[in-house]
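Practice record 12: protein with flavin-adenine dinucleotide.
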Amino acid sequence: MFRPSAQRLRGLQLLSCGLRDSPGRPRWVSRREGEENPPLPTETKWKDRAETVIIGGGCVGVSLAYHLAKAGMKDVVLLEKSELTAGSTWHAAVGFHQPGSIRIATTPVRVDEFKYQMTRTGWHATEQYIIEPEKIQEMFPLLNMNKVLAGLYNPGDGHIDPYSLTMALAAGARKYGALLKYPAPVTSLTSRSDGTWDVETPQGSLRANRIVNAAGFWAREVGQMIGLEHPLIPVQHQYVVTSSIPEVKALKRELPVLRDLEGSYYLRQERDGLLFGPYESQEKMKVQDSWVTSGVPPGFGKELFESDLDRIMEHVEAAMEMVPVLKTADIINVVNGPITYSPDILPMVGPHQGVRNYWVAIGFGYGIIHAGGVGKYLSDWILHGEPPFDLIELDPNRYGKWTTTQYTEAKARESYGFNNIVGYPKEERFAGRPTQRVSGLYKTLESKCSMGFHAGWEQPHWFYKPDQDNQYRPSFRRTNWFEPVGCEYKQVMQRVGVIDLSPFGKFNIKGQDSIRLLDHLFANVIPKVGFTNISHMLTPKGRVYAELTVSHQSPGEFLLITGSGSELHDLRWIEEAAVKGGYDVEIKNITDELGVLGVAGPRARKVLQKLTPEDLSEDAFKFLQTKTLKVSNIPVTAIRISYTGELGWELYHRREDSAALYDAIMNAGQEEGIDNFGTYAMNALRLEKAFRAWGSEMNCDTNPLEAGLEYFVKLNKPADFIGKQALKQIKAKGLKRRLVCLTLATDDVDPEGNESIWYHGKVVGNTTSGSYSYSIQKSLAFAYVPIELSEVGQEVEVELLGKNYPAVIIQEPLVLTEPTRNRLQKKR
Ligand SMILES: Cc1cc2nc3c(=O)[nH]c(=O)nc-3n(C[C@H](O)[C@H](O)[C@H](O)COP(=O)(O)OP(=O)(O)OC[C@H]3O[C@@H](n4cnc5c(N)ncnc54)[C@H](O)[C@@H]3O)c2cc1C
């Protein structure tokens, strides 16, 4: 029986315990394979200078060493404290197999999820198909098909032995000249004023131009050497291996890897048996929190935790129902090892804000899968000074001081337990919230709205309306917030609305070189004193790194505003440019000090004018002007700008004044019918005005010309801003694709972004964001299409939940902005 007897369970636990004090390669691997691994080569030479020092010889660190050396970097040194693969990486199956993988849907909503996934992968090179139950049965004949509705098949998937993978990469790294040194535990890291690092090990010290932390579940400890608290926590993960099963042995070809999403486990063939790995719920899973509070036990290497089959029993039962031959199988091995989790389970990859020349490649929940790609990605970034493509989800700077240990633990639990839950659009996860980083309005608004999580902040997404369903009900189709968001849209278009924008990233920049620095960083000109503009930081290759609002507050002093998710991402870039160019500037991150309220709509002026003696009239307070003034006696920096495209102001004020300012505005606006609005309505409003969003329409995969940002890019300005030369070349060569606005009539679903665009039976592009347009009562989306298909009136199709909807390219914007309407009216 697969269900283990108490005796067998005890036996397994003993085996695991026995491994705890067995040094070197784990015994179970050798036993199972019946052979020892070849002796590990050790390096004897030592270098005292390195271009890059990589700390950690797991699959991730070794992959980076390989790619850097292969790309021609001299003096790549990897320091490993014991031996290669001594961390999480050794947990292995055998060989390289590519039988494909199938995710199994047993509920209709899963089928929707597969369709949602299909349109997202449709415009990428990776092959993926939805397959019918008959095909699944053919590929996986041992499956109980009773509940199976569909499968998501990835023919390129497979499994590999991490030890061999790492050793192959190590051999390649050495071949190209990298030094892989072990045992060489890094014991201290000291930065020098020129940006280089002193790296100490008992075997010697060396100076590095850059260090990369790839220390797996010790990464937190390496971070602590330089005063950082990386938000990482080890969790226990178990998998079970069975003995030979006659029905498996009789198969003519290897079974595809199976993921039963409802049962929350993966299962694959292991020789003539099966290997089964479950993800327990967040209540049952085990976090190794003592490693965070007291550190990884000294000397911990390739040990295992004690196995605990009770914890995974419900998954075992689900697997036995789905793959009945498991009922007759014997367990020959249970592996329970540590995996490092970040709060959102995605790794942290890239340069770290606040510490020069310190890079990380840490927090890998699926490091074997990711190692190859991440090594290449990071190597390209290090060598070329910009990410080779957009992978913003992995930016280590998405976390910050708000990511406490309690938060990290709560999130790691949730992320582990949610490994196989349905991934809805606009998904919210609630563990660990709220953090300490709430806006001054949090208490006031908490019970009135559905909050979204943005870099530690809580921000209203949509507000509850009387007699409406207020629950969080995510869906692939329009759901319970569709009507409330429509009301908020009207509120802003017809009356006046207030929105909490406190999560914005905010920086103060001043000093004698501030103008020169910003002129070098931004593709736009520097706004005049008292004015604001939208400016983009480009990469050397002329792609969009970031978009900021730049306000010139007093001569040489600037307030820079960016989105909530890009605060430290942008700050790092600015700081690096300042240091590199030797600019004499003071850069201050004032994100947590300031709150921001947006007031927008045709009656915004009337409401605010009641609260300030400052003249807010069209001529006295122009579009994009910025002034410091008092609103209800509260000091604010007011910018006449609104992402809604309607008449509006953003009011920057001390965070502790937020509630008083909000109350004053709401009271003053009673007569004008003032009310709240959230970011969902804001999104619909900005899409109608054809305002691009950073991270969607523009990122480091796009250049500003194809994104339709020409207006903000001043190729003729005297300063040689970053990316200028590259952009001139892009312009001279001509564009291959362009961002366009599309409308489409659907039934009950709206585009979100990342959907495939079809033309004559072929995928030709992708949407970048979308929404319902409450003004024309159709869906609206931005999309990249080939230049020859980018004319107004061109018809294409947008794939949504497995159906292609006819769409047409429209003249943007769908709705004119308030300043444009004003200008046109004056002309008449
Ligand atoms: C049971 C189990 C099953 C898994 N299954 C899968 C799977 O199916 N697919 C998948 O993709 N992933 C899987 N994983 C996760 C995967 O093993 C890890 O994500 C991956 O190995 C992480 O690799 P790494 O290089 O980041 O870290 P590690 O392999 O932990 O390597 C870090 C290295 O840094 C060294 N080090 C630490 N501190 C120092 C220091 N101060 N100086 C020098 N060296 C130092 C360590 O000795 C270690 O060798 C599984 C993990 C477990 C436990």
